[in-house]
Amino acid sequence: MKLQFFNTLGRQKQVFEAIAPHKAGMYTCGQTVYDYPHIGNMRTYLFEDFLKRILMYNSYEVTHIMNITDVGHLVSDADEGEDKMEKGSARTGKSVWEIADYYTKAFIDDVKLLNIIPATKYTKATDYIKEQIDMIKCLEDKGFTYITSDGVYFDTSKLSDYGKLAQIDVEGLEEGKRIEFSAEKRNKTDFALWKFSPKDTKRQMEWKSPWGIGFPGWHIECSAMSRKFLGDTFDIHCGGIDHIPIHHTNEIAQSEACTGKPFAHYWLHGAFLEEDDGKMSKSKGEFLCLKTLTDKGYSPLDYRYMCLGTHYRKRLLFSWDVLDSAKNSFNRLKQNIIRMKEENAPGKSGEQDRVNLYKSDFLESVNDDLNMPQALAVTWEVVRNTGISDKNKLELIYDFDRVLGLELKKFVDESRRGQISWAEFEIPDAPIKQGIPSEVLELINKRAEAKAAKNFKLADELRNKVRELGYVIIDKKGGVEVKEIKN
RNA sequence: GGCGACGUACCCAAGUGGCUUAAGGGAGAGGUCUGCAAAACCUUUAUUCAUCGGUUCGAAUCCGAUCGUCGCCUCCA
Predict the structure, then answer these.
(1) pLDDT per residue over A415-458, tens digit each?
(2) Which residues contact A253 (CB under 8 A, 6 or more apart)?
(3) What's the rounded Cα separation, in Å, for the pair A245 and A248?
(4) Quick one: which of A57, A64, A192, A345 could link to A119 by a disulfide (CB 3.0–4.6 Å)?
(5) Is the distance between the Cβ of A278 and the closest atom of strand B smaller than 7 Å?
């Protein structure tokens, strides 16, 4: 099946056609680094990772740019409220720059833990102030801006198709419903491109510009940085669903007004992770971080697996039950892989048709707008299918894992190590290199006799002796398995 | 007030007109194996898709109404 995505622009599934053959340019809205990312944030980055891996699985070379918003923006257009960066600074006593560095690092740590392929480049907003100013100049030259007492604004009435992404009914918007109305704005949808620093206070982050000292508006960084690294028009732009009406709508307005060309061809948006009381949000104070999960004994990949279980365009209600369910299922998948690796029955002839069928089932699932739950179901069908050999199963599963990203090829078998508690030693992965020494073999046989005679005390003693000699005995159905302990 | 999304078994969840009298996973139950624990494996779990009505030869899938849940219209994934 051809690769297709649900495009927010037009609200329908479309076959993906890249601008350049076999290449895909992708821009994803990243983190505002004033606090730790919560697992809801990470859900979106996981969805984008699935997308990127699917592109790669389809042999696209992906250039992925993700912004790091390290500049604070005011809470509202009316120049009131607090700047999140400055607020974080006041809270911790660190400078805004230190805050940004610290939380950027925290974000990158989570990315790694979740086995998310890093972006080709992470672009920090403060590194590209010049590009942002240049773009505002471009808009000014073309007559899309006006200046008020507190900044430079974009006049949305100059753009005939403003709001096409969100299908906004401008008339129906009720500005001032939730925030103060800014009297100087010409249209309710107008937004700031550049904000002036308050006259009486000095901001930690501020820059000179043709319009006065200040800082960039909320949306210009994405337009400027995506243009610098991906060009005027690029393939895919992603973000959270909340960005559709404001942030992405305004990005499109700025970029298309400036370049006169279409901005991004495909817009994909991830739905929220929610809690019982609705959307997970930092402003509520308490929120779940990846560390909250790992502190409770879950692995980051348990969470990744959990996110694979629900389609990215559907909201997901977080609960510990759901995470437990994911963890159990993921463990079982790994146990199955261990078993397959151990038994590793060779492939039989005539299996290839079935193998190819599964492969195309998987491809069809992921290519159909990232149907990861379906892809996971195909993976399980492979695991359960008795018609193909372990060798072929493993090959298939490892291939699928290029998209799933669960590290199925190299995970450490933590679960089993913990479970065979009476053994008190690690079960080595490697098979025995040279034959088992006759001495050990003899003890193993004696133990088997003891077991048969139900003399378990003696059996356990013999097992310990074998252990001292460097071998592990594992009871299996129909006999024992012996492994060499690595030193 | 405007815009948008969703409601499938005990839980999560795919399916969006006939291939499906509904995938897959978790949990539960029963079983296999076992000296014991765990794991693993097997079997089992919705005549039904929020409710009601309509369209159709045929609907979980389309239309309408009702009920319920949620998001956006401030920054936010």
Answers:
(1) 443 333 333 334 444 445 566 777 777 777 777 777 766 666 67
(2) A154, A156, A159, A162
(3) 7
(4) A64
(5) yes
Cβ < 7 Å from strand B, A residues 101-140: none
Cα A333 to Cα A340: distance, rounded to the nearest angstrom: 11
What Rg value do the Cα atoms of chain A yield, rounded? 28
Query: pLDDT, tens digit, for every residue of A314-366?
Result: 999 998 999 999 999 998 998 888 888 777 666 666 788 889 999 999 999 99
Distance, in Å, from the CA atom of A223 to the CA atom of A251, rounded to the nearest integer, reads 6
Range in A129-138, A273-282, A414-423 with the lowest mean pLDDT = A414-423
Q: Residue A12 CA to B54 C1' — how many Å?
A: 27
pLDDT in tens, A470-480: 777 766 544 56
Integer CA distances (angstroms), A94 to A88, A201, A244, A452, in order:
8, 18, 33, 69
CA atoms of A335 and A252, how far apart (whole Å): 48
A 333-372, residues with C-beta < 7 Å of strand B? 335-336, 339, 368, 371
Q: Which domains does chain A have, with CATH numbers?
A: 18-270 (3.40.50.620), 290-404 (no CATH), 420-484 (no CATH)
Covered bases, chain B (protein CB within 7 Å): 1-6, 11-15, 23-27, 33-42, 70-77
Residue A479 contacts strand B, CB under 7 A: no
Q: Which of A365, A243, A367, A303 is nearest to A116 (CA)?
A: A303
